[in-house]
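From the shared-data thread, chain only:
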Amino acid sequence: MASIFSKIVSGEIPCYKIAETEDYLAFLDVMPLKKGHVLVIPKQEIDYIFDMSQEQYSGLWIFAQKVSLAMKNVLPCKKIGVAVVGLEVPHAHIHLVPIDSVADMDFSKPKITIPATEMLEIAKLIEENYN
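Structure, as tokens:
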């Protein structure tokens, strides 16, 4: 059964796309910890990040780095935090979260709701700064 991320990759489910290559996709998390929370995924459905080939794994992190640099340019934060949890969706993914403190990366906190118009604005800002 296809994961929700595979359905996003195929276009069955829409997303707030940030960046895309032939192998990877970055989009805003619709249940974010903070404004600008991005998910970075391989397009190929692989459940566990450490089951990826070395080439896929390193490519995912290089892609995530480029996305994080674009995020840092436009989002008010001290740093872009990184997490790989891997339990919520059976599809490897990296969380990139704008942070000002360690508490900003607490996944047990309630997620925030951001209006669609603001999500579109955030996605566009990050996308315009992606190189």
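The helical segments are 4-10, 54-74, 116-129.
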